[in-house]
Give the backbone structure.
Amino acid sequence: MSKKMSEEEILAAFEDALRNEQIFACYQPQYNHSTGRMTGAEALMRWNHPEFGPQYPADFIPILEENGLIRRADLHVFETVCRFQRACMDSQIPVVPVSFNISRHDIFEGDYVSELEQIRAKYDIPVKYLRAEITESSAIGGMELVSSALKRLHDYGYIVEMDDFGSGYSSLNILKDLDVDIIKLDMNFLRGDVGGRGGAIVNAMVQMAKWLKTPTIAEGVETVEQADYMKSIGCNYIQGYLYSQPVAGEELVEVLKRTNLEPTVPAMKLLQPMDAEKFWNPDSLETLIFSNYVGAASIFSYENGKVEILRVNNKYVREMGMNLTEYELIHSDPWTRHTPESREIYEKTIRKAIESGDEETCETWRTFCSKCCGEDTVCIRSHIRVIGKAGNQYIVYAMARNVTAEKKNYAELFDSERRFRFASEQANVYAWEYEFGTKRMRPCFRCMRDLHLPPLLENYPDSAIEMGIFPPDYADMYRDWIKQLENGAEHLEGIIPLTVGRVPFHVRYTTEFDETGRPLKAYGSATLVVDDVKTPSDADKPSAA
Ligand code: C2E
Ligand code: CA
Ligand code: CA
C-alpha cells in the first residue's frame, strides 16, 4: 500500500503536503499508571501521501531537517495542536497538556519561540496546555542556542521536557546545564536493566537525577512489567503502546470525553536543605549514592501512612544482615517487619522530618525473614530526610545502620551494671567484672561515678594503670595478679593504694570458671580501708582523666 518516498519526492511534495493537511499531527496519550488516569498527550508528526501512502517520521523528518524544511513542518504541527486545544476549549471537552517536538534545526535561525508565541496568541491558548519537547542530542554542538531557547520558553511559561533522556553519553551533564522541567525516559534506552537488580550505575544515576530534580515520564512502555517497574521506582507517568498507540485528533477527542482526567503532572518539588547540585557532579559521593560509596541508604515514598520502598543500595541490603535481595526488599510491605510500637516510632520520625525539613533520627527493631537464615530481629538506627514532595506523597531518603550488636552490648552492660550497683550500694564497695578472653573490664555504677570510668574498659589492666587508678609502683604487682588469675588462681586479695591520692583499698578477686575448668571471669571489688576518712569521690579523683 505504501511506498517510502525518495528525497526528491519528499522535496517536491512538501508544499502541497503542508497546504492540504497531508502533513498533520496525531496524539499519543500519557497516563498515570497509579491511577489509570490520562495526564497529557504528545503530538507526533504524520505524513500521509495520497499516492505513496503513510511515511515514517524516521524516514522523512531527517530529510526535512537536512533541507531546512523542518521548521515549517514543526510550526504547522504546533498550529494544528493549538487549533485542537482551541476546539476542545470551545466545545467544553476536557483539555490536557499536549507536548510538541522541537527539532534542533528549528532553533538554528531566527527567533523560533516568538513564532510559536504568535501562533499561540492567534488561538489564545493558555501556555499550560502546551509543552515543549527538546531532545538531549539537540544540545550537541549548540548548547548556547538551546539554553537560550529554553530560557525564552520558560520566560513565556512553557513547561519544557527533555526528550529521549539517557540516550546520549553525557545525559547528566546536559541535564545539569539545561534547566528542564520534566524528563522523558525512553524504555528503549533502558532495555536490559528493567526488572533486574537495576545495578548499573548509570541507571541509578538516572533514577537519582529524576528524584532530585524533576518528574519523569516513561515512554515506549509496551508491557505491564515495564510500567510496574517504572512505577516501583517512582515514575508513574507512562506513554507507550501499553496504554495507547498514537491516535488521530478525532479519536483523542473521544478518549478525552470518556477518560477520567488528572489535572497535570504535579511537580516534584525539591525541598530546601538538600543540595541537588552535588548530585550532578559525577565525582561527588552524592552522585554515586546508590552505588557503594556511601552508607546503607534507601529511598521510599510516604503517603498517609503508606510506605513504598523505591530503591535500596547494596550496602543497605548488607546492613540488614539477612540474605535478602534488593528485589525482595522492594517487593514487600516494609511495615510487616515492624512491631506496632516500632512502626509508630518510625512514622512519627517521618512526620517530624516532614515538618522540620531536617534530618531526624530514630531506632526501631525489625524482624527480617529470609529464605536461608530464617527469622532475625535487628535494631536499625535511621537518619531520615524528606527530599521531595508531589501532592500528598513525600519522597524520603533514609540512611540506615544496624546497631543490634551495640544494643545487645548495652543490654548486657545494663544487666551486669544492675547486679553490681545492687551489691555495691549495699556494701559500700566498688565492684567490677573482668573477662579473661577479651581483656575487658566493666565497672560498676559507683566506679563510673567516682572514678569517671567509661562503662567498658578495653585492654585491662593496662588501660586502668594508664588512667592513674593504679599508681605506677603498683602496676607490675597488679599485672601479676591478673596473670595469676588467668593461670587459675581462685581468689586473691590485698591492700592497694588507689588513685593519685593513694587511698588504701582492700581489693579482692574471685574467679569464675567454665565447665572445662578454664578461668572465664574475675569479679573484683574494692572497699575503703576503714580507718582512712578520705574517699576517692572528693579530693582524690584520678588526675590523668
Ligand atoms: P519521539 O519524539 O521520541 O516520539 C516517540 C516515538 O515512539 C514515536 O514514534 C512513537 O510512535 C513511538 N512509540 C510510542 N509508543 C511506543 C512503544 O510503546 N514502543 C515503541 N517501540 N515505540 C513507541 P514516531 O511517531 O515514529 O516518531 C519518531 C520520532 O520522530 C520522534 O521520536 C521524534 O523524534 C520525531 N518526531 C515525531 N513528530 C515530530 C514533530 O512533530 N517534530 C519533530 N521535529 N520531530 C518529530
Ligand atoms: Ca518527543
Ligand atoms: Ca522520545
Remarks:
- The longest strand covers residues 374-390.
- Residues 28, 44-45, 56-58, 61, 70, 74, 77, 101, 103, 163-164, 219-222, 240-241, 246 surround C2E (ligand 1) (CB under 6 Å).
- The chain has a mean pLDDT of 80.
- Residues 201 and 291 are 7 Å apart (CA to CA).
